[in-house]
Specification:
This protein has 268 residues and is mainly α. The two termini are 35 Å apart. The radius of gyration is 23 Å and the shape is elongated. Helices cover 32% and strands 4% of the residues. The C terminus is likely disordered. The strands form two sheets. The protein has a two-stranded antiparallel ribbon with strand order 1-2.
Length: 268
């Protein structure tokens, strides 16, 4: 395993995992590499994509790896009060802080070999989101932007990715077009703001003001017909599609969690 870990960089691992498990085909853009442990052969994995959605939880300020999935029972001087418990997978032990999750370890993949040369939280967070180190002149795309770039959005009227939280340092679309940027939602309790018009603001008034704005922008857009200017117009078009989408109810918390409806009991 040491030889495999040394030969396989984090970036190639993420790329290979995305192509294998998420159906992201980058063969025409990237040199394909086969990820296989020694002795398992070198045939490319041909697995159809099964995941349609990805929920990426970045626990900024969360529990340490020592207190969760990577305890160090032989280093009592750094473990503190944390104890180690067995899981339902032989050979994998975790912290006693997650006893219920320990029973589901056969459904998880724990990676304990990730390392970084970044010496500060901000640089490390950027590396975790993009697989690239920070550079003053380049902003790299996040995972959601890469997925949209290769396989487009799943719903033509809704954003392809959503970021919950108020983190202005998130790389977003990076050097990709702005249409690959995630929809930012500061507070999930309030859903998406400014998507519903007031009663007095009729459809006729709405389109009248929209047409006026397009006329004012037309000369500038024709003079500077470049990617960033076109992306500005595309942003308006995407916003209109989302406002009129019947699927917008997916962001309506009151609709999704109405009181009185039966709910699934918590796991035991």
């Amino acid at each position: 395993m040491n030889a495999l870990r040394n030969d396989l960089s984090r970036r190639s691992f993420v790329s290979g995992a995305a192509k294998t498990f998420l159906g992201v085909s980058a063969a025409s853009h990237l040199n394909t590499r086969v990820i296989a442990a020694p002795g398992l052969g070198t045939s490319p994995l041909k697995q159809a994509a099964t995941a349609r959605n990805v929920i990426y939880l970045y626990m900024n300020g969360g529990m340490s790896h020592l207190d969760t999935f990577d305890p160090k029972p032989d280093k009592t001087d750094i473990m503190g009060l944390t104890k180690v418990i067995n899981t339902n997978v032989d050979g994998i032990r975790v912290s006693n802080n997650i006893p219920l999750l320990a029973r589901q370890m056969d459904k998880l993949a724990v990676i304990r070999s990730m390392t970084s040369t970044q010496g500060a939280h901000e640089q490390g967070a950027y590396y975790q989101h993009t697989s690239y180190t920070q550079r003053s002149s380049i902003r790299h795309p996040s995972m959601g932007a890469w997925l949209q770039k290769f396989q487009d959005r799943g719903n033509p009227t809704l954003p392809g990715s959503v970021m919950i939280g108020n983190d202005s340092r998130h790389p977003g679309a990076g050097f990709f077009e702005s249409r690959f940027a995630p929809l930012l939602i500061n507070d999930p309790e309030s859903g998406i703001n400014n998507v519903k018009t007031n009663q007095w603001f009729t459809e006729e008034r709405f389109h009248s003001r929209l047409n006026t704005a397009k006329q004012l922008d037309r000369q500038f857009a024709e003079t500077y017909n470049v990617k960033n200017v076109r992306a500005y117009a595309d942003m308006y078009d995407d916003a209109l599609k989302m406002m009129k989408s019947e699927e917008l109810k997916a962001f309506d918390r009151q609709r999704s969690f109405r009181p009185g409806l039966p709910t699934r009991p918590p796991p035991r």
